[in-house]
């Protein structure tokens, strides 16, 4: 069987399994077994799949995933979120676009703390969005600011998706985590500038805000100081990783212990909430792990079929410029993320992309860090961005209105991806200091 026939059949089968609603892990497991049968004519090679699943699940690098998830759960289930909200609200003050700016800043901070774009979209949609509508802020721009900020969660460390991508792509997880700092912060700043400029051009989009002007500076400083320990957790984690003192897994473990202690003394963490955080972490980690162990072996099936080698030779044989190939590789990931879960897209594309990236001579860290940004925008990209559906569920708005709200921020994402590609130091400089 020709390699392109096998690859096309595998992709069509996978998309078909997704379309009928089969869970991702079962879809990949089915795909692996069918592919193995097509190649060998029997299931005697099933041990290949089993061994691959075991090796993946036993990887020590995966220990960082539940620890990062637990860190976010602890901060979300205690009162730390409200402490940070009050601090940001006090800092922004009576700026006309105040709550737009607050939504972008908070979504960025909460995204870094939790690592879950959907969790941030749900929280902001149920708490801040109703308040913005009540005060006369335009709903479309309000939802756009929340969606844009929440989509930064997979980029700004600690990021579960960065850990998964690092394992799949075979690059340093520490470097990939650090590489997301500058792009994430730059994107957050771009969103901030966008909403401020929109209000300057059209003041009717926001009311004159005077709520925060009555707060004395001593009160504002007190609110900010109270939030410093919680945001400092992220700084401490990144400091441990960049200095080489700890691995991502060790830094995440330290972060969980420190977060639990801080939330116990300065927030409202108790035994009941800690148990709830542990249960939620176990459930989320189980879903991610079962997807990974059932899907990583897909790359081995591709290697067995000869698809990987033939695909690389065919792509390099096109003699297209590296710039055009970069656009093609990123464009495919962007389009797939419109329809498929981001982890599924990474698991599907990374095994195919790895040898191509090497063959084209791209810096692996630079390419995969930008690929992570490219995949992250899938959270808010129509028609099937998961954060879109999450926000729709809590805000009870039409999906078409959400599409209109998301598109300006998707456009900003695409522009900044081009900037990151043209200015590599924005991605690679910080990891080079490690």
Structure notes:
This protein is an all-alpha fold. It has one domain (3-432). The protein is built from 22 helices and no strands. The protein has helices spanning 3-19, 24-40, 46-57, 64-77, 80-92, 98-114, 117-134, 139-150, 160-169, 173-179, 181-201, 217-243, 248-266, 271-295, 297-305, 307-316, 322-336, 342-360, 364-376, 386-395, 399-422, 425-432. It is globular, with a radius of gyration of 22 Å. The chain starts with a helix and ends with a helix.
Q: What key attributes describe this structure?
A:
single chain, 434 residues, globular
Topology overview:
Layout: H1 3-19, H2 24-40, H3 46-57, H4 64-77, H5 80-92, H6 98-114, H7 117-134, H8 139-150, H9 160-169, H10 173-179, H11 181-201, H12 217-243, H13 248-266, H14 271-295, H15 297-305, H16 307-316, H17 322-336, H18 342-360, H19 364-376, H20 386-395, H21 399-422, H22 425-432
Helix pairs in contact: 1-2, 2-14, 2-15, 3-14, 3-15, 4-13, 4-14, 5-6, 5-12, 6-7, 6-8, 6-11, 7-8, 7-20, 8-21, 9-10, 9-18, 9-19, 10-22, 11-21, 12-13, 16-18, 17-18, 18-19, 19-21, 20-21
């Amino acid at each position: 069987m020709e390699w392109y026939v096998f690859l096309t059949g595998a992709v069509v089968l996978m998309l078909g399994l997704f379309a009928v609603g089969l869970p991702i892990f079962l879809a990949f497991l089915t795909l692996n077994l069918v592919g193995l049968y097509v190649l060998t004519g029997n299931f005697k090679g099933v041990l290949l799949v089993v061994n691959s699943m075991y090796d993946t699940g036993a990887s020590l690098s995966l220990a960082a995933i539940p620890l990062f998830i637990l860190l976010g759960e602890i901060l979300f289930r205690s009162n730390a979120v409200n402490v940070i909200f009050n601090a940001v609200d006090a800092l922004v003050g009576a700026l006309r676009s105040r709550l737009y700016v607050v939504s972008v800043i908070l979504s960025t901070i909460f995204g870094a703390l939790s690592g879950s774009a959907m969790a941030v979209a749900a929280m902001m949609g149920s708490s801040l969005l109703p308040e913005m509508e009540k005060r006369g802020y335009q709903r479309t721009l309000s939802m756009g600011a929340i969606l844009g900020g929440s989509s930064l969660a997979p980029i700004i460390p600690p990021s579960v998706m960065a850990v998964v991508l690092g394992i799949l792509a075979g690059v340093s997880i520490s470097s990939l985590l650090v590489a997301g700092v500058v792009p994430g912060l730059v994107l957050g700043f771009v969103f901030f500038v966008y909403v401020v400029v929109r209000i300057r051009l059209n003041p009717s989009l926001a009311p004159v805000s005077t709520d925060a002007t009555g707060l004395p500076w001593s009160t504002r400083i007190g609110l900010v100081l109270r939030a410093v320990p919680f945001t400092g957790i992220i700084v401490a984690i990144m400091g441990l990783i960049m200095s080489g003192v700890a691995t991502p897994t060790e830094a995440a473990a330290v972060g969980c212990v420190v977060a639990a202690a801080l939330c116990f003394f300065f927030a409202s963490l108790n035994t009941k909430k800690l148990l709830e955080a542990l249960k939620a972490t176990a459930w989320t980690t189980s879903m991610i792990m079962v997807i990974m162990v059932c899907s990583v072996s897909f790359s081995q099936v591709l290697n067995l079929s000869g698809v990987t080698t033939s695909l690389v030779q065919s792509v390099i044989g096109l003699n297209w410029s590296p710039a055009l190939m970069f656009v093609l590789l990123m464009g495919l990931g962007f389009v797939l993320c419109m329809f498929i879960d981001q982890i599924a897209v990474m698991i599907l594309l990374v095994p195919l992309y790895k040898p191509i990236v090497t063959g084209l001579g791209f810096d692996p860290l630079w390419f995969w860090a930008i690929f992570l940004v490219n995949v992250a925008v899938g959270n808010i990209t129509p028609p099937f961005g998961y954060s879109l559906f999450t926000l729709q569920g809590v805000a009870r708005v039409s999906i078409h209105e959400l599409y209109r709200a998301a598109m300006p921020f998707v456009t900003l994402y695409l522009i900044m991806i081009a900037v990151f590609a043209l200015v590599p130091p924005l991605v690679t400089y910080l990891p080079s200091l490690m």
